[in-house]
Structure formats: structure tokens, C-alpha cells
What we know:
Number of helices: 1
Helix content: 10-25%
Structural class: alpha/beta
Amino acid sequence: MKSLKPLIIASMILTVGMGAFAQDAQQDSGSGTRSEFYVVQIPIERVFAHTKGYIVEYRQTPLVNKKIYIPMEWFVPATGENKGTARKGEIILMGTGALWPHISVYYKDGVVDHVRLYVRRDGHHFTWGYVNPAENIDAHFENITDLKIEYK
């Protein structure tokens, strides 16, 4: 038991020291290094590629899935007058690791500023879905300026 006493004291000192460090880091973040974005990460059930954009199916509750429609224009670099304007969407292709496909939604002043889709590189992965070409869903991608994501 005597040999454990120095370890317990050392762990207490380390814990107190880490708490003080965390307080310092919190104070530093208020001095201009705080991000202007609020980020929400949502696991994706399936992603459907369409000529007009991407349909992202996510789980709102254990029994309810919802879909959001993200137009292709969000993923294309701006040209002409708008050249240099940041894209609203970015696709990041993941390999075969343990990460599950998800979407990161970046809010600025309560409005969606941009999104990042983290999807499997392999288009045959079961998280990729296919849209029936006979199904006319073009209207779902028109005039989208913000995403209405319903949370639990």
C-alpha cells in the first residue's frame, strides 16, 4: 500500500495541473481565436448521387430517417463574377477505415454556411444509393439557399 501512495499523489497533482491548463486554454479561446462557426456532425445512413445534386439520408430518431437535398452548385467552384467565392459544399472521400460516413454542417449566425460530406470512396459501398432515373425529383434541388435539418 505504501508504494501506491506516491502514485496517488502524483496523479492528483497531474489532475490539478490539467484543470489549470484547461482554464488557461478556455481564457485564450476568448481572445480572438474562437471560431465563427458552429459545427454539427450527423451520421449518414445513405447518400444518393443525382445529376442535380446529392440526397443525404440521415437518422433523426431511431425509427425515423430524413432526407436533405444539396444542389450540385454548392460543390462546383464559382466562376465569372463570383470567381473566388467559396463553395458551400465539399466532398471528402474516405477509404476503408472505421469512420462512418457523415456530414459536417457549419452554421454561421444561425444559418448553414457550408457543408462537408464525408463519404466512402467506393461507390459500391452500401451507404451509396441509386436514384431511379425515371423518378423526377429535379424540383427538390431548385432554389435551395439553406438546409432545413431536423434534429431530435
